[in-house]
Amino acid sequence: MSMTVLDPSFEEDAATVVLPQRPHSLAGATVGFISNGKQGTKGFFAHLERLLRDEWGVAEVVYRTKRNYSAPAETELINEAAGWAATFAGIGD
């Protein structure tokens, strides 16, 4: 009887990631919500929007939904989100 042993290690070096600076304030800013498209995100995002506007002075909230709930966000969506002061991602079941 033979046995095959698989090595799950990743052989390439991981790319260096540079994190963006956090905004000093959200007052007057645009923030975005990225949903997976499931029903449970609606109530959460609505409540979060009220808090962001009332307590943090956020000027604009952008809602976007991924095309496929189980896949990463599309490149176009990621590029758009790069222009927002903050991004919130939600998964609702």
Which bin fits the share of residues in helices? 10-25%
Would you list the SSEs in sequence order as H and E?
A: EHEHE
Poorly predicted sequence stretches spanning 5 or more consecutive residues = none
Strand content: 15-25%
Through-space gap between termini: 46 Å
* Helix/strand class: alpha/beta
Global morphology = elongated
Main-sheet strand order equals 2-1-3
For the sheet with most strands, the description reads: 3 strands, parallel
* SS element count, helices: 2
Say how many strands there are: 3
Radius of gyration: 19 Å
Question: What would the average pLDDT be, to the nearest integer?
Answer: 91
Notes on the protein architecture:
- The chain is α/β, with parallel strands linked by helices.
- It has a domain at 33-90.
- Helices cover 25% and strands 18% of the residues.
- The chain contains two helices and three strands.
- It has helices at residues 41-56, 75-81; strands at 30-35, 60-65, 86-90.
- The protein has a three-stranded parallel β-sheet, with helices on one face.
- Strand 1, helix 1 (41-56) and strand 2 (60-65) form a beta-alpha-beta unit.
- The longest helix is centred in the middle third of the chain and has 16 residues, at 41-56.
- 9% of the residues are buried.
- The mean pLDDT is 91.
